[in-house]
Amino acid sequence: MNPVLAHLLTRLYPRAWKDRYAAEFEALLLEGRGDIRLTANVVCSAVCEHLFPLGGLKMNRLSSSLGAILCAYLAIVAAGINLYATVDDSPLAIAMRTYLGLFTAWNLVALGSVAALLGAVAILVPLAVGALQFAIREGRRDILIRLSVAPLAAAILFAWVIGAFLGLGGHWAPAPWAIVGDWTGTADWPSVQARWVFGSLTGVLAVSLLITSSIAVYQAIQRTRFDEFRFTIQHRLIAVHPLRIARIPGIVTVAAMSIMTVGVLAWGIIANLHATTAFHEYFGPMHTTAFASWIGSLCVFTASSVVSLHSLSSLLSQMGEE
Amino acid sequence: MRSTRHVAGTGYDMEKGHYSDPPLLVLASLANGPKHGHAMIEDIAGMCGTQLGPGTLYGAIARLEQQGWIEPLPPEDRRQPYRITDEGLRVLSAKLTTLQQFTKAGLKRLEAL
Fold it and tell me: Would the ipTM clear 0.95, i.e. be above it?
């Protein structure tokens, strides 16, 4: 085969694949005829490698499962913030002091959120360290860029909120939950129009940055070839694999997210029974009712739990295979 | 693992009786000694008439290597030879035994016609 065509065909493969097989594969192509059938075979195989990147690999499946759990967790964080901001400073918060069921369901969500946070951090730390080590060692700028997206997104959102808060007089933070509703804004707040514009922009920015961060985290994990961490304790060499470390926290995180989802469901049902009036007042984001806000959060909680439970079943089957 | 549709040509060729399970073919090819990619393609073609495309071959090699059923040897120029591992031999033996049982049963049924 023509060396230029062989080189071009090899370039069609994913980066991780090329890192390992490019040289020998190109050598093999040079030995063959450059006919259409052979070219089509290579193009189809390259497409398959992009669609199913070494899909049968245990480590690849493991990192996919953990990446999916982390993304589901990020979505649950967003839904949780929405629910908290809806309830905060509203009659629903007062109703929770009166009704034990409401109080219990809310605290179930709070307990779940603490466990999920600890689990997510315990997944993220070994994976982030492993990905960072690999990216620096192999000079993989694509992974470094993806790893920096989430902190950068948080910084952008923070800068936007602080900038808008100061720019609008320092009395109103541009939150989608504080635009207009069944309450009266104080006189030093900006106009309703300004609140709509800035509150909406915050909502759009937060959702966009969250989605971007989730994709970046997932891709960074997918593109990394995780190696064992090796260290010595009392002259004994210890070798642990970051993906294996992250499995138990993965189980904890998924369990905690499921508990939170049950808590959110129970909380809404009880609120609808015992705090009906407050539950249907406009305390949600963008002039929506607390009920609508709860439905939105519940949908995200449920979808994230389903995704994470699916990933957990894959995680457990891999542990079973070992 | 890839299915038969990833094999260059028509997959299972009814006329010529080609067998096309790329990972199994690669394992079988390496069972009588280490080989590099081009040698594997020729050996497989001679063994069962299946002409594996380079993309299909390396799809199988990558997965077999990751599963620990084959391993690379030191390169010869730009060619990369592979050899089958002990685990790969066990897998090959188990798969061929299953195929043999299947073949026996299938042929018996044909004889009964």
Answer: no
